[in-house]
Amino acid sequence: MAKIEVYSGDYCPYCMRAKALLKQRDLEFVEYNVQNEPERRAEMVGRAPGVRTIPQIFINDRHVGGCNELYALDKKGELNSWLEV
User: Fold this and answer.
1) What does 17-58 look like in DSSP terms, one character per residue?
2) Domains of the chain
3) Percent residues over pLDDT 70 in the chain
4) Measured torsion, CA atoms of residues 13, 16, 21, 26, in degrees rounded to the nearest 10
5) What is the pLDDT of residues 12-70, one digit of tens each?
6) Could you tell me if 52 and 65 are in contact, meaning their C-beta atoms sit under 8 angstroms apart?
7) CA distance 53 to 59
8) CB–CB of 22/83 below 8 Å?
9) Burial status of residue 29 (CB atoms within 10 A of its CB: 0-12, 13-18, 19 or more)
10) Does residue 85 carry a pLDDT above 90?
11) What are the φ/ψ torsions at residue 18 (nearest 5 degrees)?
């Protein structure tokens, strides 16, 4: 099973959309709330230098990007290849 990690925050519409797509695809993911756990934001920036916005999504330790990038992968039919372990 693929390791999916989502750095997100409360009341973030892009975070909600990204998580909704993952749930729609029946994909399990670990969510890190950068607002409740500020140390997670530093971790996120360390994993994806220059990134400040949420959500930030990683699949098998590979940086997908944010919500728009996740949807673009899905639309192009490339999401499944990212999920292969």
Assistant:
1) HHHHHHHHTT---EEEETTT-HHHHHHHHHHSTT--SS-EEE
2) 4-25+32-83 (3.40.30.10)
3) 100
4) 180
5) 999 999 999 999 999 999 999 999 999 999 999 999 999 999 999 999 999 999 999 99
6) no
7) 17
8) no
9) middle
10) no
11) -65, -45
